[in-house]
Amino acid sequence: MAPYLETVKSFADVPITDAGVDTLAFLEAAQGVVGLFDLLGSAAFTPVQNDLKGNIAKVRARYDAAPEQSSTLELLVVNEKGEKKRTATEGLMWLLRGLSFTCKALQAAQANPTEELSAAFSKSYEATLKKFHNFVVKGIFSTSTRSLHLDPAGGPPVPADKLNEELNRWLTALDNIVKRLEDFYEKGGHNKGF
């Protein structure tokens, strides 16, 4: 996994200024999460990947339409606030939820390496996404995580300490960005209506 992490934008390298989280760098790092699911080798992640891709596309479309008003995620949301349809605001909110789910699961897997990966993802789902899903989605997710397995892509083994160091750096930065933006959404009432 470390070679993969070295090929994608790390959340630790996403610039954060007083104005907020850099939109393009964040989207690039989020795209890396989509590819990470390919490494896990399970069809259980197809719905998660599709959701992440769709929400990345919504935020990207807003950025492309108004780059100066969308240079940071916070500016993007604030500048979309007066519009009837806040597609990027909602897309970012769901993207953050999906990233939080992924982050919590991988942090749990890091903290307890003897636990099955499916258990880490199931617990993370309970803590992050379950409250937002209807009965049907909950059932689909529960069924898919039971079949989850790790299917490494091959190649030379990566020293565990290097893998853990890079993954922990990546996850810590992701967790900080998610918490920052969740707080921004809550304080600004940007999550209302979704």
Automatic annotation (TrEMBL):
One of its GO terms (molecular function) is ceramide 1-phosphate binding. Keywords: Transport. Residues 21-146 form the Glycolipid transfer protein domain. Pfam families: GLTP (PF08718). GO terms for cellular component: cytosol; membrane. This is Glycolipid transfer protein domain-containing protein. It comes from Trametes cubensis.
